[in-house]
Here is the input.
Amino acid sequence: MALGKDYVKQECSLARALEVVGERWTLLIVRDALYGVRRFGHFQTHLDIPRAVLSARLQSLVDTGVLDKQGHDYVLTGTGRDLWPIVHSLARWGDRNFSDRGPCRLFVHIGCSEPIDAGGACPACGRVVPPEELEIHPGPGLDAARQDPVSVALRSPHRLLEPVPV
Amino acid sequence: MALGKDYVKQECSLARALEVVGERWTLLIVRDALYGVRRFGHFQTHLDIPRAVLSARLQSLVDTGVLDKQGHDYVLTGTGRDLWPIVHSLARWGDRNFSDRGPCRLFVHIGCSEPIDAGGACPACGRVVPPEELEIHPGPGLDAARQDPVSVALRSPHRLLEPVPV
DNA sequence: CTGTATCCTTAAAGATACTG
DNA sequence: CAGTATCTTTAAGGATACAG
Here is the structure.
């Protein structure tokens, strides 16, 4: 993010985190990765991001240890997967405050068949559920007349292996 | 953030949230506000941000309903206070993954005298504790030789009413 | 003290074409 | 398919001065 000399000195945890995931596009890339996207071209199709920018972001995420590059696949590390509750909470915050129709998508813990809460935890089992144990369903925030390409294309996020037409 | 035309169409909750708080500086400003900062000059001193940029960010946060301008004070709305667990989780993520000495600051629920967990909840009472009920203590991630100006200047974040020398 | 306005410099975004 | 390279435009950062 290049916040500049002063933030490093400030010894602020939040600033340090934002140096890693605070740049434009970065958290959207991480979200896609949490949904199971691994390939350059699939990120590109989904996000409609300039290739040069995507290249730089992926490189940076590899450098900081959020992604690991395995052949042509970018796969989340533990550090990266650890971002899931944050990504989820932020999306829910967006829903609560800037959507007049509620969430665009609903996440159901496959094991318990319960929708997870705003913090990403399953009310039934109490755990923060990682994305690979979730089913995605279209929510009321989506245009009802339109099918949701994401939730239609897959039930579990980790079946999102092909680029989905948006 | 001006992510561009496509994100709005994408009906993505996360993208919408990032349009509001995803720009550079914005989340740092929100964090300061959560710590009790309200005045233009205090944000400016703390963050060492150009006045023009700070002015634009504050205006934008007021426009989106994260802050409310009351006279010369910028005070968090419910929407803004609602960002606390997210800001806290992100900072903890930064600590866990990018600090070799642990968190820079520790947050203790005043009522229960218990440090809150990574999600911002108090282990004793189970609630997600809002910042005004927290005491800040310097953590091991801080340079031990240096006093932490934030935790020295105040015990509760909401006593951070004066600009603190950094 | 709280901003706005100006000017300059740098960096990032976007579009497009090209290579392994 | 997975990127690089180049070019243009736009936005942001930093310094400074000025007004309410």
